[in-house]
Design goal:
The chain is mainly alpha-helical. The protein has four domains: 9-160, Rossmann fold; 165-225, Helicase, Ruva Protein, domain 3; 235-336; 352-477, no CATH class. It contains 24 helices and five strands. A five-stranded parallel beta sheet has the order 2-3-4-1-5. Strand 2, helix 4 (83-94) and strand 3 form a beta-alpha-beta unit. Helix 8 (166-179) packs across helix 9 (186-196) and helix 20 (387-396) crosses helix 22 (412-436). The longest helix is centred in the last third of the chain and has 27 residues, at 338-364. The structure holds adenosine-5'-diphosphate and magnesium ion.
C-alpha cells in the first residue's frame, strides 16, 4: 500500500459497522435508506447529517454506499453555482436507474459552505433537486441552523451526529497503531483523544504526524507536540489543511486560521509546494497563483489597501490547493522555510554590525555610516589576516565576542588565543609598574590603546591574582 496515503483515507470506514459511536444516527439513517432500496420513496427524500467536524458524517454515507453496493455521486454543495454541475447532477437524480444498473446515492457534502457567500440560486437548485430526485440524497453540514438553510431543513430528515467520546477515539487510534505495527503508549493515545475534543479526523492526523516524525508515540512526545484544538493552526497544520483540502473554502480557511503573518504564510507555502506536488504542471500552477498573491501583498503594503487582502488569501489558499490536477494526494514532509532561517541569522548579524559600528564610531569620532563603509571592511581584512594584531584591536576597543566573531570568521579562535596571551602580559607590566614604579616598561597598553574600561579590568584581574599569592602563572614576556 502507498506509504504516503493519509491515514484518514487509508482507515476510513468501509462498512456501516466501522463507523463508531454514532448508533443514534444510524438508527435513523439506515431504515430511511432501506426504504429507498425497497423502492418505497420516503416522505423526506433528503437526509441532512449535521454535527461537529470529523465525527463520521461523510464516512457513514461512504460506508453505506459501499456496503449496499450503491454508486456514490458526490458533490460539494458550494459548487452548486456552476450551471453545468447542477445540470449533470440533476440529470442523474431525475433518471430512474436502469433495470440492471447500479443504484445510486447522492452526497452533497458540506452544504453550510454555501450559506455565507453563495447566491440564492445554489440553494434553489438543491431544493429543486430534492423535488425531482429518484435517488436518496444525503447532505452534510457542521452548522445547519443558518436562517438561509431553513428550506433545506424543512425538506430533510434531520440526523444529528455527536462528538465522539474519548473511549471510541482511543479505540480507533489503537486499531491503527496495531495495523501500522506502531509502538503506541495507551496514555499517549488518551492524551491525543482528549485534545481532539471528539474530532477523530484531527486525532488520526495527529497520530500520523507523530508516528512519521518520531517513529513511536509516547506520552512525552505527544505532550510536546499536540496542543489543544482551540488555538490557531501551526504552520505544519496550515500546510496540511491547505494541501489536503478538497474545496476552495477549506483551503481559504487553512490560510486564514493561523496567526503567522502574511509574509510568513507565503514563505511556508512557497517552500513546500515542491514537497507536496509531484507533477511539474501542478507545481507551476501553484507558483503562478502564489506569485500573484505575493504581488497583491506588495501592493497592499505600499498603498495600504487592505481590502485586497482577501485576494491574497484566495490566491495563496484555494489557488495553490486547487492547482493540484495530476499529483496524487500524499502525505508530504514539510520543511521549514530556508529564507526565514536565513533572515533570522542575518538579523542577528545586522544587529552585531550595528553595535560594532556604534562602538568604533564613538572611539574614532566618525559617523556610524562611515565606520560601516570605510572601517569595518578593513577591520575584517585585518582580523582575518593578522590575528595577533587583531587581538590588540579587540582588546583596545573592548569588542564583544560576537563582534570579534563577526569580523574574524574562521580566525576567531586564533585571535582569542592571542588575546589571552596579551591579557596575561598586560597584567605583568601593570604589576611591575605598581611594584617597581618604573613605569617606563613597554607594554601592550601603549601600543594597542585599550579603552579605559579594559585597562581597569586588567588591573583588577592582576590585583586579584596578587591577593591569591603570586604572579607565577603569568607568562614570561
Ligand atoms: N465515527 C467514526 N468512526 C470511524 N471513523 C471515523 C468516525 N468519524 C471519523 N472517522 C475518521 O475520521 C475521518 C474523517 O471523518 P469524516 O466522516 O470525513 O468526518 P465528518 O464528515 O463528520 O467531518 C474518516 O476518514 C475516518 O477515518
Ligand atoms: Mg465530511
Amino acid at each position: 500500500m502507498n506509504k504516503n496515503i493519509p491515514w484518514v483515507i487509508k482507515y476510513r470506514p468501509r462498512r456501516v459497522s466501522d463507523v463508531v459511536n454514532q448508533d443514534q444516527a444510524k438508527e435513523k439513517f439506515i431504515p430511511w435508506l432501506r426504504q429507498w432500496l425497497q423502492n418505497r420513496v420516503p416522505e423526506k427524500k433528503a437526509a441532512l447529517f449535521y454535527g461537529p467536524a470529523g465525527v463520521g458524517k461523510t464516512s457513514l454515507v461512504e460506508a453505506a454506499a459501499h456496503e449496499y453496493g450503491l454508486e456514490l455521486i458526490e458533490m460539494n454543495a458550494s459548487d452548486f453555482r456552476r450551471k453545468e454541475d447542477i445540470e449533470r447532477i440533476a440529470k442523474i437524480a431525475a433518471t430512474q436507474m436502469s433495470l440492471f444498473g447500479k443504484r445510486k446515492i447522492i452526497l452533497l457534502d458540506e452544504v453550510d459552505g454555501i450559506s455565507g457567500s453563495a447566491d440564492k440560486g445554489g440553494l434553489d437548485a438543491i431544493l429543486e433537486l430534492i423535488k425531482v430526485t429518484r435517488h436518496p440524497i444525503v447532505m452534510t453540514a457542521n452548522d445547519p441552523w443558518d436562517q438561509k438553510l431553513r428550506p433545506l431543513r424543512d425538506a430533510s430528515l434531520m440526523i444529528p451526529f455527536n462528538r465522539l467520546s474519548e473511549r471510541y477515539v482511543v479505540q480507533v487510534l489503537k486499531r491503527i497503531c496495531a495495523a501500522e505495527k506502531l509502538e503506541c503508549e495507551d496514555a499517549a493515545l488518551k492524551y491525543i483523544a482528549q485534545r481532539s475534543e471528539g474530532d477523530l479526523r484531527s486525532a488520526i492526523n495527529d497520530l500520523q504526524a507523530i508516528a512519521e516524525g518520531y517513529g513511536r508515540v509516547t506520552l512525552d512526545i505527544v505532550k510536546a507536540v499536540v496542543v489543544s484544538r482551540d488555538r490557531q493552526y501551526s504552520p505544519w497544520e496550515m500546510l496540511r489543511n491547505l494541501f489536503m483540502s478538497k474545496y476552495a473554502w477549506q483551503a481559504k480557511r487553512a490560510v486564514t486560521h493561523t496567526d503567522l503573518d502574511y509574509d510568513t504564510v507565503l514563505q511556508w507555502i512557497n517552500e513546500n509546494i515542491p514537497n507536496q506536488y509531484t507533477d511539474p504542471e501542478d507545481v507551476w500552477r501553484a507558483y503562478e497563483s502564489l506569485s500573484r498573491a505575493d504581488i497583491y501583498l506588495g501592493r497592499i503594503k505600499r498603498s495600504l489597501s487592505w481590502d485586497l487582502l482577501s485576494y491574497v488569501f484566495d490566491l495563496a489558499g484555494p489557488g495553490v490547493a486547487l492547482a493540484r490536477k495530476k499529483s496524487k494526494f500524499r502525505w508530504a514532509k514539510y520543511s521549514f522555510p530556508q529564507k526565514i532561517m536565513l533572515l533570522a541569522k542575518t538579523k542577528e548579524m545586522r544587529e552585531i554590525r550595528e553595535a560594532l559600528a556604534e562602538t568604533i564610531s564613538k572611539r574614532i569620532h566618525a559617523s556610524k555610516s562611515t565606520v560601516k563603509r570605510d572601517v569595518i571592511p578593513f577591520l575584517m581584512i585585518i582580523f582575518r589576516e593578522r590575528p595577533d594584531y587583531a587581538a590588540r584591536i579587540a582588546i583596545g576597543y573592548n569588542l564583544t565576542d560576537n563582534m570579534i566573531k563577526y569580523l574574524a570568521g574562521p580566525t576567531y579562535s586564533k585571535i582569542k588565543e592571542h588575546m589571552n596571551l596579551l591579557l596575561l602580559r598586560m597584567e605583568k607590566p601593570a604589576l611591575a609598574s605598581e611594584e617597581s614604579s618604573s613605569g617606563a616598561k613597554e607594554s601592550v597598553t601603549a601600543r594597542a590603546a585599550p579603552s579605559p574600561s579594559s585597562k581597569k579590568k586588567a588591573t583588577r584581574r592582576a590585583s586579584r591574582r596578587r591577593r591569591r599569592g603570586g604572579t607565577q602563572s603569568t607568562l614570561p614576556i
